[in-house]
Design goal:
Radius of gyration: 17 Å
CATH class of the largest domain: Alpha Beta
CATH topology of the largest domain: Rossmann fold
Oligomer: single chain
Number of strands: 8
Number of domains: 2
Mean pLDDT: 94
Number of helices: 9
Distance between the termini: 17 Å
Structural class: alpha/beta
Strand content: 5-15%
Length: 220
Amino acid sequence: MNDNMSGLGKAVLFDCDGVLVDSEPALARIAAIALGDFGAPAKAEDFKPYIGMGEEKYLGEVLKKYGVQFTPDVKAHVYEKYIELAPDYVEAFAGVRELLQQLKNEGYRIAVASSADLIKVEANLKVLNVSDNIFDAVITGSDIERKKPFPDIYLLAAERCGIDPAMCYVVEDAVSGVQAAKAAKMTAIGFTSAHSGQELSDAGADYLIDNMAKVADIVK
């Protein structure tokens, strides 16, 4: 066993959109285009308050603003557009692949915990393009009833990793995600890709970063 195995007994749990991949602006633009097909003249900025809350709330609240009812057909259409356009619009954040490999090498358990449905997470992980065994668990909105800010998704990720919640670090870009991490009694690292440092601090973030490489120093 390497003396460098500092991660033994710890887990780092990552949200996906806005953390592993720079997808939030792309999703907002694509969703606005797709909702227009249902008569809702949505704008990309309409979606910001609902980042990290799962697609039904993310889309449904914006549709409500424009007097259009949410249906499963709407979500299916958005997914079709997203899968079609993600390879052109979405890319991994700088340093993410290297960070994941470093954490894996040092013995940390690593998981994805995204409120998005499985089909969208799979599209993002395809863009991320890492080895199939890099993650010890991939938890999505398809696996849980209560989405963030409830702690359920992070508690399930900790359970799947076999790590006590108190020994888990969560990397989040969304206010609802930070709130979920704190509700799960985990250490929250706020990544300022979608929300300001102040917004994430107010939500309870224990640390703030503007570069994913900084995660490795925090979790040691």
